Every structure is written in C-alpha cells, then in structure tokens.
User: Fold this.
Amino acid sequence: MALFTILFVADICGKPGRQATAHLVKPLREKYNADYVIANVENAAGGFGITPEMSRKIFTYGVDLQTSGNHIWDRVQILEYLADRPKLLRPANFPVGAPGLGSIVDQVGDVKVGVINLQGRVYMANIDCPFKVADHEVDRLRMETDIIFVDFHAEATSEKQALAYYLDGKVSAVIGTHTHVPTADECVSGRGTAYQTDAGMTGPHDSIIGMDKGPSLGRFLTGMPKRFSTATGDVKLCGVVVRVDAADGKAVSIERICESFDIADIQGDRSLDAND
Assistant:
C-alpha cells in the first residue's frame, strides 16, 4: 500500500503561532514523512485575520496550502490577495461573489490531493449550507482525485460530527477547526474517513483561546467590550497527521499531535516578521 501523508497545522494564532510554525513545521514534516502540509491561518494576524505578507511567509515555512474561516475578511488587504492566491482558501460556502476559492486540487508528484474549506452555521454567520456545498465540491473534486481533505471551521460539535457522518466514505478526512481546544476523539471510520472534532490551536496555550486572560475575563465579568491581545505563554503547535491510501483515498490512520515550542530559544531571530 502506497501511503499519502497529510500534516495539518491547527489554527495559527498571532505571532507566537507563526513562530512555532516557522520553526516546527519542517522538522515535523521530516519526522512524519509528510507529503503535504495544510495550515489554518485565519488567526495569524494578532488573532484576527491574516495579511498578504504573513501568508507569503507562512508558505516559506514548509506549508503547501492555507485554509481559513470566519476571520478571513478581518484584514481588508487580504481581499485582493485572495483573488490571486488559489492556495489560500476561504470557506467554500460563502455566497457567490466572495473573492477567492473554497477548494482546490493540487498536484504532488504523481498524486493529486483535493482540499475543501467549509464554515459552519450554528452560532456563526448564516451563509450557504455547508452540507449542500460539500456535495457539490466533493463531486467536482472526485472527478480528479479520491484524496479529499476537509477543514470544517465550525463552532458546534454537533454540526462537525454531522458533517463527518454526512461525508463518511466520500472524503479522506473531516477535521474541525475554530474552537482552539483540541478534542480527544480522533478516529477513522469503517468507510475510511478520518475525523477529529477540533484540531486545536498553534499558539499560546496559557491563554483564553489564544488571547490574554485579563481582557477575556473582563468581558465575561462585566459584559463590556475589551481590546484583546495575543498571549505569549506555553506555545504549542497542535494538529493532526492523516495517512491515506493513495490508491483509493481512504484514510488508514489519524494521529493527534501537540508539540511545545519555547519562544526564548529564538530571541534575536530576525528571519521572522515583527508584526503582531
């Protein structure tokens, strides 16, 4: 059996997350013999959105494709960049007219891999139905490849599980993102679809989902709006490694990963951007 290995880097949050990605992806790619690396980047710019400069740099860290979610529109300069950068995806179920692409088939040597980015609707924006859009995108991508990876950026566990059951046997993997807390339910179904409700976060874990604890607590305690800043402590790269049978696109294994990263080890490293 020839295996195709996908390394997925969970939501990159702020500068600490970018630093961990810069220093850990290439070693992890070698460790797991990964053929393809996908990273969710929608929180890369200070926890909210991503800039073109940051996206370009993240590609140089060993990432082949970038996915996103509800914060993709937070930095206005990304709109024009999305139109010209097919390897930065936005959720496919945004209505017609939104810039950018929601899916792609990429060539990796002799193998083609399809990736679909979707966004949930429970407790989130009421955009197009992710289930119906998934039907269309899967049918279209399967004309070219049986290897299809889905990043489902959603709030509700129930919606993520529902999509996994809905696409069971039709795609190689359904991996949830958005909530920044990794779940311990990784599995491969009998029909060959890998699943995890949420892959977690690449960034500071001594935080409240990546943000400094003080302002976050203040908002819960007072109900007043607060200015959030990315935290810096206990930085980790979270994600999954999915191994797929290259012949039929069925997943054979999924492994949850969580790698610690000490920012103090790279003080003075000028190869990284200084932006928040």
Q: What stands out?
A: The mean pLDDT is 94. The domain at 3-204+235-263 is CATH 3.60.21.10 (Purple Acid Phosphatase; chain A, domain 2). Residues 14-31 form the longest helix (18 residues).
